[in-house]
């Protein structure tokens, strides 16, 4: 137990001293993750005025908060999460599972026939610590994201997802090849060096 406590305390110290945590706090952002998305958006010019953007797994809201600050009401931004999220101006939040019919009906009502230009996802499954179980859960989650995009993304639209090195990531990148014209890996500087996470941008969906 003491060993676990030491690890928790070390993580807390590193978190408090993290320059991106300090920057997020000073700039009024909800999480350090905002700088991961900002770097990718700056590099790839992901979001433009007039776009419809869906933020899957949005809580606590850092990515949506960044987009709302940058574009205000110049984009249509819908954020979705199982967890509650404090309101953000110019962001429509739906609490629920993006796979549920009731949630999908709310999205369709809000869009009123419009297709989506960009789906962004910083989601990850709950970790059990059993690698095979975690990979299977993540692969299932990624499958759900792909299916959501197949139903609602317009032609030549983009998808940005968080991945972790492993079999689920290989599976996802393999599936992307028949659905999108190209894909690129992004490892933002705000991602912790020891983290297995990276981001994959699937570009130009094939209708």
TrEMBL record:
What the entry lists under InterPro entries is as follows: RNA_methyltr_RlmE, RNA_MeTrfase_FtsJ_dom, rRNA-MeTfrase_E, SAM-dependent_MTases_sf
Positions annotated as active site in the UniProt record: 162
Summarize where S-adenosyl-L-methionine binds, as residue positions: 61, 63, 81, 97, 122
UniProt keywords (A-Z) are: Cytoplasm, Methyltransferase, rRNA processing, S-adenosyl-L-methionine, Transferase
Principal location listed in the UniProt entry: cytoplasm
GO cellular component entries: cytoplasm
Q: What is its EC number?
A: 2.1.1.166
Q: Which residues form the Ribosomal RNA methyltransferase FtsJ domain?
A: 29-205
Quote the SUPFAM superfamilies the UniProt record gives: S-adenosyl-L-methionine-dependent methyltransferases
Enzyme class, UniProt record, top EC level: transferase
Q: What are the subcellular locations of this protein?
A: Cytoplasm
Q: Could you tell me what this protein does? A: Specifically methylates the uridine in position 2552 of 23S rRNA at the 2'-O position of the ribose in the fully assembled 50S ribosomal subunit.
Supply the HAMAP family for this chain.
Answer: RNA_methyltr_E
Q: What is this protein called?
A: Ribosomal RNA large subunit methyltransferase E
């Amino acid at each position: 137990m003491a060993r676990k406590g030491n690890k928790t305390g070390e993580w807390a110290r590193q978190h408090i001293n993290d320059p991106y945590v300090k920057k997020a706090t000073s700039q009024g952002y909800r999480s350090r993750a905002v700088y991961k998305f900002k770097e990718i958006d700056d590099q790839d010019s992901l979001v433009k005025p007039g776009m419809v953007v869906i933020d899957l797994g949005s809580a606590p809201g850092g990515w949506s908060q960044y987009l709302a600050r940058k574009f205000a009401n110049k984009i249509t931004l819908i954020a979705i999460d199982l967890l509650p999220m404090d309101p953000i101006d110019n962001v429509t939040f739906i609490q629920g599972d993006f796979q549920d019919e009731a949630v999908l009906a709310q999205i369709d009502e809000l869009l009123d026939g419009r297709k989506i230009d960009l789906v962004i996802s910083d989601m990850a499954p709950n970790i059990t610590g059993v690698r095979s179980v975690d990979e299977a859960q993540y692969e299932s989650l990624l499958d759900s994201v792909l299916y959501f995009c197949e139903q609602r993304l317009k032609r030549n639209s983009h998808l940005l997802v968080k991945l972790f090195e492993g079999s689920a990531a290989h599976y996802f990148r393999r599936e992307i090849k028949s659905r999108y014209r190209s894909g690129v890996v992004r490892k933002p500087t705000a991602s912790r060096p020891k983290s297995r996470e990276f981001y994959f941008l699937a570009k130009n969906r094939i209708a």
